Amino acid sequence: METNLIIQNVLTPPVLFFFLGILAVLVNSDLEIPAPLPKLFSLYLLLAIGVRGGFELQGGLKQDTLLPTLFAAIMMSLLIPLICFAILRLKLNVFNSAAIASAYGSISAVTFITAESFLKSQGISFDGWMVAPLALMESPAIIVGLALVKIAAPKDRPNERVMKWRKILHESMLNGSVYLLLGSLLIGFLTAAYNPDGLEKIRPFTENYLFYGVECFFLLDMGIVAAQRLPALKKAGSFLILFAVLMPILNAFIGVFIAKGLLLSSGNALLFVVLCASASYLAVPTAMRMTVPEAKASYYISTTLGLTFPFNIVFGIPLYMSLVNKIIPSVT
Question: Which of 14, 109, 192, 301 has the fewest CB atoms in 10 Å of its CB?
Answer without folding.
Answer: 192
